[in-house]
Specification:
mainly alpha, di-copper center containing domain from catechol oxidase, two-stranded antiparallel sheet, 7 strands, about 25% helix, Di-copper_centre_dom_sf
């Protein structure tokens, strides 16, 4: 993945096309090839298609075979029994293609990341995994808290890494079809030490437009002007909406800025100083802010920091606001892509220095759907968190550099000195 200045000028056009392709299939969480196999007996379905140019489900020996899916079963509280995301995807299917070698995909007719190609992505996917609750009553909502499977959880970084790989593969597929651009990669936005949103210009992701009430449109000269904002509210009349408060009265992309205090080099150094990914003691993990995953996602920071806008990942969302404010709507804003590649770049730098073992990612005692061997919620074919808890070179990509900010942070020097490194 490359720096934003190299690729972002071309990204907007590809995203526009992608949006209209994916929005048509926005409710297709289950692969179309397998929808007809969902049975009345929950979880007894089989998703083992026959790939093109083959006579056998999953391609047959040497490519893939149809096997019972292993799902690490977690104890589900009674109030979550009806949540179809629990023990994903056992509510829908119990047999999938198990691919051999470097084959991958619903029918084992694609390649694993780093070897070649993969398939669809939906705007719906991020919201499905992060939706708040199924409760009808607001009181119950507050009592049970959120049921978000991909935020404020240990799997935040691994889930979003895979989600970004989906985005990149989809966009590359379109780039190849339209331009023969086979080496397309997602750019990143280095916001460290920024004083303003330097990608918020019409030649990139859209400049500032007119104010409408307490929010702001994108400039009318930008291709992102009046860009649709997708977020489906619950159809049950639930009071616990996960779309932001302005929805559905306002259904186009907006941004307004609460602050210009983007994360700094000092914030980055503090984040990278955490040598432990996760600590089982909540007071240590988040209370004393010793868990790397908590610091990078932004739910804790250094002592004495009274920032109104949280930290690192969260802070940027809370600065940009508008569509970008919330889990349910933020993937509609193209800033989401370049922001999350930046987060993944920091994750990769930390990983290269600390080289954690797979067992340092917990397998028990964490939020449902987030254990090491748990399937990530929302993805079919299934993918376990541990497969994304790796050096990115093992899944086929790296970054052009690990330099950050305006003060000259050097990733190369950090890898030599570690937390002792100072700019």
């Amino acid at each position: 993945m490359k720096h934003i200045k190299h690729l972002l000028q071309f990204l907007w056009f590809i995203i526009i096309i992608t949006f209209y392709i994916t929005i048509i299939h926005v409710k297709c969480l289950i692969p179309k090839l397998c929808v007809h196999n969902i049975t009345a007996i929950g979880g007894s379905g089989i998703c083992c298609p026959i790939p093109k140019n083959s006579k056998y489900p999953c391609g047959g020996p040497g490519q893939g075979t149809c096997q019972k899916e292993y799902t690490q079963i977690e104890r589900i509280p009674f109030y979550l029994i009806m949540d179809d995301r629990m023990n994903w995807p056992s509510r829908f299917f119990n047999h999938f293609c198990k691919c051999e070698g470097h084959y991958f995909g619903i029918a084992c007719n694609e390649c694993w990341y780093g070897w070649e190609d993969v398939q669809y992505l939906l705007s719906f996917l991020h919201r499905y995994a992060s939706r708040a609750t199924l409760f009808h009553d607001a009181k119950d909502c507050i009592l049970r808290q959120h049921l978000d499977n991909n935020h404020e959880v240990v799997g935040f970084l691994t889930w979003h890494r895979y989600y970004m790989l989906f985005w990149e593969k989809l966009l590359r597929k379109i780039a190849i079809q339209l331009y023969g651009w086979s080496d397309f990669t997602l750019p990143y936005w280095d916001w460290v030490d920024s004083k303003s949103c330097d990608v918020c210009v019409n030649s990139l992701l859209g400049g500032y437009g007119q104010w409408v009430g307490d929010t702001r449109l994108i400039d009318r000269r930008s291709p992102f002007y009046m860009w649709p904002e997708y977020c489906s509210p619950p159809t049950t009349g639930s009071n616990c909406y996960s779309c932001h408060a302005g929805w559905p009265n306002f259904q186009v992309l907006t941004r307004y800025f609460e602050s210009s205090a983007f994360p700094t080099t000092d914030n980055l150094l503090f984040t990278l100083s955490k040598d432990t990914f996760y600590l089982p003691q909540k007071m240590e993990d988040i209370g004393k802010c010793r868990g790397f995953h908590q610091v990078l996602e932004g739910f804790c920071s250094f002592t004495g920091d009274n920032s109104t806008y949280s930290f690192m990942h969260n802070k940027v969302h809370n600065i940009v606001r508008g569509t970008f404010c919330c889990a349910a709507t933020s993937p509609n804003d193209p800033i989401f892509l370049v922001h999350h590649t930046q987060i993944d770049r920091i994750f990769q730098l930390w990983f290269m220095y600390n080289r954690p073992r797979p067992t340092e990612y917990p397998n028990h005692g964490v939020a449902l759907g987030n254990c090491r061997e748990c399937n990530m919620v929302g993805f079919i074919p299934t993918i376990k968190h541990v497969l994304m808890f790796v050096n990115t070179e093992l899944i086929g990509y790296t970054y052009d550099n690990f330099n950050f900010g305006r003060r000259g942070f050097s990733g190369e020097k950090y890898l030599k000195c570690g937390p002792k490194y100072r700019v």
